[in-house]
Amino acid sequence: MEYINIALTKGRLAVKTFELFERIGITFEDYNPGSRKLIFTSKEHKIRAVFVKAGDVPIYVEKGAADIGVAGKDAIMEAESNLYEIMDLGFGKCKFSVAALKDYEFKAGRKMRVATKYPRVAKNYFKQKGEPIEIIKLSGSVELAPLMGLSDVIVDIVESGKTLKENGLVVIEDICDISARLIINKVSFKTKSEKVERIILDLKGLIGGKEVS
Ligand code: PRP
Hints:
The chain is an alpha/beta fold and 213 residues long.
């Protein structure tokens, strides 16, 4: 029987995902949270779990390198990949927000500069609001951009709000809620359907099968 590949991300999402799989009877014998390995196997169920960067999970699934993925809604929105988003797994909760310095006031007459690790999310959000912007794509430490005069606002993930607070920024608008989602490759959904469907049904049975948005 063919193996099923699941792409996920190291760290908290992986720990939560492995917990879920354990509860539906799937354990990866060679997994331990301290390991530097990137592939773990359940020989019994013929399932492999592979660790990829958070933003890369959707592309692994879209291209079929992985049949299933566990990805943050943030990564899914940014990737705009062609795949099925099956269910909300209920963990990894945070939100996308627009934030700025406390005393920030936008001066009309030029485009607002938006620093972000998520250029598509930011572009789509302001486009839908009809506001022209200039995107400044950064790789991290986005909160610095308004402090250093690089941007007017940021679009970023807010979880506890600690990073914003400690850098003197405040949320000016919320964009949407984020959580971990189960995503499936469109071809695998058909060709490996029995096994993939079993996993989906078991997970839905376990956590109530929340509708995704
Ligand atoms: C993320 C995000 C914020 C922070 C939000 O950054 O981009 O900076 O976490 O979390 P909080 O609201 O709980 O403070 P990450 O830790 O991924 O680091 P990075 O900025 O280097 O990408």
